[in-house]
């Protein structure tokens, strides 16, 4: 049996627009109305008075599925806890609308998602947000969700509305600042190449070089991690650093895939007797303050805008629920600021 959401997808409009056509309670453009009516006829959709009555009584509830609660780090293990920051941004935006956020944790099991969606539907939530632990593609099955859905920090292949960090723009902004401080030999120790963020940040790095007319040197870009979830694996970081320092024209600054990598790079440089930032500058990514602000010297980095992403995801969902915004055709990309600290000094021309 077709639903109002099936009709909305077929017509390329929001469920609210379909509702306006069916109920005649708000103006709808002629072409839009025609598309909706054609979709209704094609799908043989029959509006349910009972469902319409249930929907007219708003629950004021928003459901959120995340792994932030169960994804707790081991004692002493540094982590940016992006899920938590995104949740905080969502909560703030939902509270401003005097609505209630219901949170369900997956416990690290993707097979629980379907049951959680079903539970939320039983509670008549008006919308759902799914939050991932890092920027990646997910196989989120929202087929059982009879309400709008927004993905945060992730995307799928079905075109579900999503909000993502603008990794490319963030890395480009950082490298542009380094270039503005006189650096031309800029190395980049990347995340694992299976991560979406890794390729996007390399693209941003190259964008900045291209804009400044600096030739890309592949010898300056090397992997800093072996595995996605093994940030403590330094077996590749040491040889990568050695290769960079052994170049005929070594870098004056090293960009790291994240702040945890920068933390380990500080130690490797100091064991070699290299002074920071007098002999070489270092920059990170994330602005995880427990690392960036406590390192000596404090770390120049880029802030991933997790709270802003959460806020944007909540706002996008509320707009879909209200029918004030059509479903975005492209992901919402959220940039973050460069946070300049003393781990980078200006490079003077020799």
Describe what this molecule looks like in 3D.
The chain has 350 residues and is of the alpha/beta class. The protein has three domains: 4-55, lambda repressor-like DNA-binding domains (434 Repressor (Amino-terminal Domain)); 59-165 and 306-334, 3-Layer(aba) Sandwich (Rossmann fold); 167-304, Response regulator (Rossmann fold), CATH 3.40.50.2300. It has helices at 4-11, 15-23, 30-43, 49-56, 82-96, 113-122, 167-180, 196-212, 237-245, 259-271, 289-292, 306-322, and strands at residues 61-66, 100-105, 127-137, 149-155, 161-165, 186-190, 221-223, 253-256, 281-283, 301-302, 332-334, 338-339. Helix 8 links the parallel strand 6 (186-190) and strand 7. Helix 1 (4-11) crosses helix 2 (15-23) and helix 1 (4-11) packs across helix 3 (30-43). Mean pLDDT is 87; it is low at 49-55 and 73-80.
CATH superfamily membership of the largest domain: Response regulator
| Largest sheet, spatial ordering of strands | 2-1-3-4-5-11
CATH class of the largest domain: Alpha Beta
Total strands: the figure is 12
What's the structural domain tally? 3
Secondary-structure element order, N to C: HHHHEHEHEEEHEHEHEHEHEHEE
Principal-axis shape: elongated
Largest sheet: 6 strands, parallel
Q: What percentage of amino acids are in beta strands?
A: 15-25%
Helix content: 25-40%
C-alpha Rg (nearest Å): 24 Å
Descriptive key words:
Rossmann fold; elongated; alpha/beta; 3 domains; 434 Repressor (Amino-terminal Domain); 12 helices; 350 residues; six-stranded parallel sheet
